[in-house]
């Protein structure tokens, strides 16, 4: 049941203030419109997909980056066994599968777009449906991965927004903030794509952590 919030806009400001600068940035992965950072967002989305621990998945993404595999070309050139060894510390069960998956994605992205997701965006003519379609043509990228990528990249790819993933919308409904990404955009400001992404990231973490009681306390803080 949705909680009744007397001032939803104030509540949203509190959630954004306490929730950090979006999902990826909260875990040390900046959202910037350059080939390296865009690739890292996609890699993070792949590691988050199906993970039972989002913090460990984010730590795994940072570990791959810090190993020097911070671009699609470098990831594609890395030995699969070494990728698996890095990932094993964070997700032992899926390490080999994830190592193969991120490698295949990086190889295809390098071959088709020179490792630059901005070229994919140009090929899609900045149409979100076409961007989704081209992303899903990459091996290891399904609709869930695209959703997680879109959640953060809407800050720098304005055509994506307003966008909210399934977990963020679940939290929004339970907290009485609406049923759609547009409802959230109306609360943050129609042209505030950055604040919307921050809110969406905060809501997703609330649902992942089950921290609804703490979030509701902010409504009256």
Verbal overview:
By secondary structure, this protein is mostly helical. It folds into two domains: 8-25 and 162-220, no CATH class; 32-141, Hypothetical protein, domain 2 (Endonuclease III, domain 1), CATH 1.10.340.30. Helix content is 65%, strand content 0%. The chain contains 14 helices and no strands. The chain has helices at 8-19, 23-26, 35-48, 54-66, 72-77, 80-88, 95-113, 117-123, 128-136, 143-153, 166-174, 181-188, 193-209, 212-217. Helix 3 (35-48) crosses helix 10 (143-153) and helix 6 (80-88) packs across helix 7. The radius of gyration is 17 Å and the shape is globular. It starts with 7 loop residues before the first helix and ends with a helix.
Structural class designation: mainly alpha
> Would you report the number of β strands?
0
Low confidence ranges: none
How many helical elements? 14
CATH topology of the largest domain: Endonuclease III, domain 1
| The CATH H-level homologous superfamily of the largest domain | Hypothetical protein, domain 2
Rg, please? Answer: 17 Å
How many domains, as an integer? 2
Shape: globular
Q: What is the CATH architecture term of the largest domain?
A: Orthogonal Bundle
**Arithmetic mean of pLDDT:** 94
CATH class of the largest domain: Mainly Alpha
- Approximately how much helix is present in the residues? 55-70%
Question: How is the main sheet built?
Answer: none
Strand content: under 5%
GO biological process, one term: DNA repair
Protein name: Endonuclease
GO molecular function, one term: catalytic activity
InterPro entries: DNA_glycosylase (IPR011257), HhH_base_excis_C (IPR023170)
């Amino acid at each position: 049941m949705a909680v009744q919030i007397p001032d939803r806009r104030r509540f949203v400001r509190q959630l954004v203030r306490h929730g950090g600068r979006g999902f990826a940035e909260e875990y040390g992965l900046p959202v910037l419109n350059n080939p390296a950072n865009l690739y890292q967002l996609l890699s993070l989305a792949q590691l988050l997909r199906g993970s039972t621990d989002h913090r460990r998945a984010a730590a795994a993404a940072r570990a791959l980056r810090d190993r020097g595999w911070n671009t699609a070309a470098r990831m594609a050139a890395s030995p699969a066994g070494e990728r698996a060894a890095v990932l094993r510390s964070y997700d032992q069960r899926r390490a080999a599968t994830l190592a193969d998956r991120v490698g295949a994605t990086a190889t295809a992205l390098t071959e088709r777009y020179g490792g630059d997701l901005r070229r994919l965006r140009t090929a899609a003519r900045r149409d979100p449906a076409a961007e989704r379609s081209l992303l899903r043509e990459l091996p290891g990228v399904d609709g869930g991965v695209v959703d997680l990528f879109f959640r953060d990249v809407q800050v720098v790819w304005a055509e994506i927004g307003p966008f909210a993933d399934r977990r963020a919308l679940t939290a929004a409904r339970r907290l009485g903030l609406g049923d759609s990404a547009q409802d959230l955009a109306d609360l943050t400001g129609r042209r505030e794509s950055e604040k919307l992404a921050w809110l969406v990231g905060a809501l997703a973490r609330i649902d992942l952590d089950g921290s609804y009681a703490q979030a509701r306390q902010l409504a009256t803080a």
